[in-house]
Design brief:
The chain is built from 12 helices and 10 strands. The protein is of the alpha/beta class and about 325 residues long. The protein has 2 domains: about 5-50 and about 160-330, Rossmann fold, CATH 3.40.50; about 50-160, Rossmann fold (3-Layer(aba) Sandwich). The strands form 2 sheets. Strands 1-2-10-7-8-9 form a 6-stranded mixed β-sheet. β8 (about 210-215), α8 and β9 (about 250) form a beta-alpha-beta unit. α2 (about 50-60) crosses α6 and α7 packs across α8 (about 220-235). It binds pyridoxal-5'-phosphate. Pyridoxal-5'-phosphate binds near residues 49, 157, 189, 191 and 286.
Length: about 325
């Protein structure tokens, strides 16, 4: 029987399936029987990351020929903005970004890549509030339309019901790789689309999986309500009337202080993953999620006898914007 998921149109932007790797030394480090890494940092689009799966669905209408410009919003080190900019170029479109946050002179990490893709950027100084960035994008969209351009806009993080389908598909892929046994899947949570897709996808394809979110910016209650909205939209597109509800969203919000700011535990997790597994995590997203994973194992919230699968959602370019914070790690003898 055809899976309705395969009848919903999408673009091909990601290299799939991504690998599922064992992480035996990191497992031993936290006394887990088994730890695996789902390598969605290797989706390929402009350096990889979770947004490639979401953009496959979100950007399908943008490739119809009716648009000439892609627009989106994000924080100054937004992976979503960088990957949308790359996708725009793949589709032969112009790209305009509204970014926000602390102003620094340096153009580093994702912002450097945005520049390379020729993205025109409007930057909200010291303000990465979603509503403010969305209003700025709407104003700019109208300006462009008045000038005869045909912009297509994508909301923060590509988190829409359609975008979340990327992670319904991602969970089907993971179920094929891992099999049907019990698992605890740990996911980084920002704008909630990845988490929403994982929960809807797990209910469909991997019922033995417990999905555990680690928030990097929102409170538990804010994640729950936004994720539930996205799950309703996403499940609706799949013809389901029984979307998982708010109560089914397991998320922890104790592993960030302020969006974007590196935490001590996050920095430690980045170093541990790099030194034990040669695995690169970042200070804004996946480093915090790994810090959460290690702590939840220690607290007994995650079970040691059930495999843990860390969904690596990417973010590598961000590392290069945190040189100041990471520089003390360097052990160099100049001769
Ligand atoms: C590297 C990385 N991980 C996780 C996330 C969170 O995904 P979502 O916005 O779908 O919650 C993001 C979003 O920006 C990201 O860039």
């Amino acid at each position: 029987m055809t899976d309705i998921l395969d009848t919903i149109p999408r673009l091909t932007l990601a290299d799939l399936p991504t690998p599922l790797h064992e992480a035996p030394r990191l497992a031993q480090h936290c006394a887990l029987q088994r730890l695996l890494i789902k390598r969605d940092d290797m989706t390929g689009l402009a350096g990889g990351g979770n947004k490639a799966r979401k953009l496959e669905y979100d950007l399908h209408p943008a490739a119809s020929g009716a648009y000439d410009t892609l627009m989106t919003v994000g924080g100054r080190q937004s992976n979503h903005a960088r990957m949308t900019a790359a996708a725009a170029r793949i589709l032969g479109l112009d790209v305009k970004l509204v970014l926000g946050g602390p102003v620094t002179e340096a153009v580093q990490g994702n912002m450097l890549l945005d520049a390379l893709f020729g993205a025109e950027i409007r930057f909200l100084k010291e303000n990465d509030d979603n509503d403010a960035m969305m209003s700025e994008m709407r104003r700019w969209e109208e300006e462009l339309q008045s000038a005869g351009k045909r912009p297509f806009t994508v909301p923060l993080g590509g988190s829409t019901g359609r975008g979340a389908l990327g992670y319904v598909r991602g969970m089907r892929e993971l179920a094929q790789q891992f099999g049907g046994g019990a698992a605890q899947v740990v996911v980084t949570v920002g704008s909630c689309g990845t988490l929403a897709g994982c929960i809807v996808g797990a209910a469909r394809y991997m019922p033995g999986a417990r999905i555990v979110g680690i928030s990097v910016s929102r409170s538990t209650s804010a994640v729950r309500s936004r994720t539930a909205e996205l799950m309703r939209e996403c499940a609706g597109l799949l013809g389901q009337t029984d979307a998982p509800d708010e109560e089914s969203v397991e998320v922890y919000d104790g592993y960030f202080e302020e969006y974007g700011a590196i935490t001590r535990a996050g920095r430690e997790a980045i170093v541990t993953a790099a030194r034990l597994e040669g695995l690169l995590l970042d200070p804004v997203y996946t480093g915090k999620a790994m810090a959460g994973l290690l702590d939840l194992v220690r607290l007994g919230v995650l079970r040691r006898d059930v495999p843990v699968i860390f969904l690596h959602t990417g973010g590598l370019p961000i590392l290069f914007a945190y040189e100041e914070e990471l520089r003390p790690l360097a052990q160099i003898t100049y001769r």
